[in-house]
UniProtKB/TrEMBL annotation:
<dbReference type="InterPro" id="IPR001680">
    <property type="entry name" value="WD40_rpt"/>
</dbReference>
<dbReference type="GO" id="GO:0000209">
    <property type="term" value="P:protein polyubiquitination"/>
</dbReference>
<dbReference type="GO" id="GO:0000109">
    <property type="term" value="C:nucleotide-excision repair complex"/>
</dbReference>
<dbReference type="InterPro" id="IPR042238">
    <property type="entry name" value="Rad28/ERCC8/Ckn1/ATCSA-1"/>
</dbReference>
<dbReference type="GO" id="GO:0043161">
    <property type="term" value="P:proteasome-mediated ubiquitin-dependent protein catabolic process"/>
</dbReference>
<protein>
    <submittedName>
        <fullName>DNA excision repair protein ERCC-8</fullName>
    </submittedName>
</protein>
<dbReference type="Pfam" id="PF00400">
    <property type="entry name" value="WD40"/>
</dbReference>
<dbReference type="GO" id="GO:0006283">
    <property type="term" value="P:transcription-coupled nucleotide-excision repair"/>
</dbReference>
<dbReference type="InterPro" id="IPR015943">
    <property type="entry name" value="WD40/YVTN_repeat-like_dom_sf"/>
</dbReference>
<dbReference type="InterPro" id="IPR036322">
    <property type="entry name" value="WD40_repeat_dom_sf"/>
</dbReference>
<dbReference type="GO" id="GO:0031464">
    <property type="term" value="C:Cul4A-RING E3 ubiquitin ligase complex"/>
</dbReference>
Amino acid sequence: CVDVVELSAAISWIALSESSTTHNLVAVALRRAEHSCAVLLDPVIGAPALTLAGGHSATGSSTITWSPRSAHTVITGGHDGRILYWDVRAPSKPFCSLDKYINSDASTTSSPEAVAHTGPVLSFAFSMDGLHLISWGGAGSDENALCLRMWSSGPDDYTSTTTSLDHVPQCCPRLRPVNFGTIYMNPGASESLTHPVGQLPAATSTSSHSAVRALGLNGAQTRHTHTPVRMAPVEGVAGGAWGAQSVYLYVPCRSRLLMALAAKQDAPTRLVNRHYDRVRACVWNKRKQELYSCGMDGNLFVWPLYLNISSADDLG
């Protein structure tokens, strides 16, 4: 293997497939690439093996991931608000594009008019059983508004299509009718959450926690821009989401943490304070039942949360 692979564009995100047994490709999202939105790198030869061209606007892709249920499916999210599904065996064009408008008569293939978010896609993650995709990105006409969206990808929730290679059946996910509310990232002010009836109010976390302080100044001023972040999905109740497993979500939301439960019957949400600057990533430790969050304030927090219950009151 080589030590360095040079690309012609800035890299927004990288991802490895957790289900593949036939390849070791590294999916790379490119920002403002001239002719491609992403490349698949082969670390053995030290060069791109495949290029995913088109689909997104000239601003490129903001994030990328592999499907946990298919070793050949890559999903890209763009600064243009589009989420595209690609089959690496037929990479000439995406085979599916997510559309935020629920339309059962819409085309099951990729459409240049389909938009998943009205702003940049900042993160997405699959539920633990791989049957739902949750995305985090722009909402509405306000460039400072963000929201979560839940998309189906189960075997009973899509219309089958085929690619031009070996007639491989693919799924075309649809938007689930789950209202998580909208986050308004007010410049120079704290975030506000507008939530539908039955949602939990914004509150400061009362969970016990510990902090590991790294090098850096808490009072440093950082320009807040919409940059890709890493959200953490946590397994919920079996059968709680259209027969699939519900999922708890922990999403970096500027200097706060958005907690949400993605389920069919209810979608409680809560904003919690702990960091002093932008939160960039969340990771869940299943063995210890702990959530880790890190931010630009130089802190890493450990949240010992116990989520093997269905009550919405346990979201923080």
